[in-house]
Amino acid sequence: MGVEMGLWRAEGGKLSRIVTTPIGLEAQLEAYIESDPSILGEPLLVIGRQIPTAHGGFIDLLALDDSATVHVIELKRDKTPRDVTAQALDYGSWISTLSRSDVASMFENYKPGAVLEEAFAEAFNETLPEEVNAAQVFTIVAASVDAATERIVRFLNEDYGVPINVVFFRHFTDNGAVYLARTWLVEHESGATGGSASGIRQTKTREPWNGTDWYVSFGDSPEGRRWSDAAKYGFVSGGGGEWFSRTLKNLPTGARVFTCIPEHRAER
Fold first, then answer.
1. What are the E-state strand segments in 28-176?
2. What is the predicted pLDDT for the residue at 47?
3. In whole angstroms, what is the distance from residue 141 CA to residue 122 CA?
4. C-beta of residue 140 within 8 angstroms of C-beta of residue 165
5. Rounded to an integer, what distance in angstroms lies between the CA atom of residue 88 and that of residue 123?
6. Which of 104, 115, 132, 188 could form a disulfide with 184 if both were Cys (CB 3.0 to 4.6 A apart)?
7. Quick one: what percent of the chain has pLDDT higher than 70?
8. What's the whole-model pTM score?
9. Average pLDDT along the chain
């Protein structure tokens, strides 16, 4: 069943319906989402726009949530029901092959001079997890879709747990004011994929932090810092940008530090 959104102005005990103005909406939605991705229902960090894939085509928007799950955001525009769903899943199959460093490079191409770890920390007040892109979520953005698209998305989401959903936007104008209304095809909760797909993406759980143990990544390079020097002289240092060194300043006296050399995957 199609989604119907209505908006009325209540004035002096009388209701006046405000009609939608869909002209040009889908062309604007990509820019709206890029500027404020939280309109999709949860905090997101956009990491790329119009990204070319290895198999042809361009992904409209990619984003990370606070668990470093990748969100593939595809606008319907004039695509057919088969195209819009198959294209989103096809893009996801390619995205799923990307490593943490691939995702970081993608973000740096999107925001030259920016560092993914720093942007993630600023967006979520969290450290970027070591495992990035462990799962993917698919969101189709539309002003409306046909019955076939709704049927396909519900079938994948509700029957097979595929984390795919459609978010609808309607554009209203009233006496010079402009409004944007949002609803979902499948019931959506913040931090979940919607429907039975929420079982695929696990809710983050953490043990209480003891306030003493800290984790530091230490880049061991012949041209720069060497772990042998750090072990000999008893120091750790943050490289790669101001955020990394600034975070180290939070270390209290007496903290226990666990150091990892990422290239060697060996804790010291």
1. 45-52, 58-64, 70-75, 136-142, 164-174
2. 97
3. 26
4. yes
5. 25
6. 188
7. 79
8. 0.70
9. 82
Structure-block tokens of residue 61: 């928007």
Whether 110 and 174 have beta carbons less than 8 Å apart is answered as no
Tokens of 265: 């995957």
Residue 37 DSSP class: G
Average pLDDT over residues 208-226: 74
* DSSP letter for each residue of 111-140: STT--HHHHHHHHHSSPPPSS--SSEEEEE
Q: What percent of the chain has pLDDT over 90?
A: 38
Residue type, 84: V
pLDDT the model gives residue 197 = 37
The token pair that represents 22 in the structure block: 């869909």
Contact between 38 and 45 under an 8 Å Cβ cutoff? The reply is: no
CA of 78: how far to CAs of 11, 55, 125, in Å? Answer: 38, 21, 38
Instruction: Give per-residue pLDDT as tens, 168-206.
Output: 888 888 888 888 888 899 987 655 444 333 344 444 445
Angle, vertex CA 33, rays to CA 30 and CA 39, nearest 5: 145
Tell me the two tokens of residue 228.
């042998």
Nearest CA-CA partner of 85 in 2, 159, 151 = 151
pLDDT digits (tens, 9 = 90+) for 121-148: 999 988 899 899 999 999 999 877 888 8
Residues 238 and 247: their CA atoms lie apart, in Å, by: 8
Find the angle CA(59)-CA(101)-CA(239) to the nearest 5 degrees. 130
The whole-number pLDDT of residue 90 equals 94
140 phi and psi angles, rounded to 5 deg: -95, 125
Residue type (1 letter), 115: V
